[in-house]
Amino acid sequence: MTIDEALRRPTISVPDAGSVFYGLGRCASYEAARRGDIPTIKIGGRLLVPVVSLAEKVGLKARIGDAA
User: Fold this and answer.
1) How would you class 60 by CB atoms within 10 Å of its CB: exposed for 0-12, middle for 13-18, buried for 19 or more?
2) Angle at Cα 26 formed by Cα 33 and Cα 3, nearest 5°?
3) If 0-12 CB within 10 Å is exposed, 13-18 middle and 19+ buried, where does residue 40 land?
4) Can the keyword DNA-binding be found in this entry's annotation (predicted)?
5) What is the pLDDT of residues 5-44, one digit of tens each?
6) Measuring CA to CA, which of 11, 14, 51, 58 is 20 to 30 A from 43?
């Protein structure tokens, strides 16, 4: 996943968020989410990252709904 692809989605997985926005691996991404460094929401059994919140945290704007 690229940063542009991530910014067009409402949510992404924790590993994708860590990798795309911070260059982290899977375990480090979940650890960052556990600490609150990566904002998460839980939907059912899934832990997801709201892209708007994360993008704002790192100084970017999400473009949810923009054409590819």
Assistant:
1) middle
2) 80
3) buried
4) yes
5) 999 899 999 999 999 999 999 999 999 999 999 999 999 9
6) 58
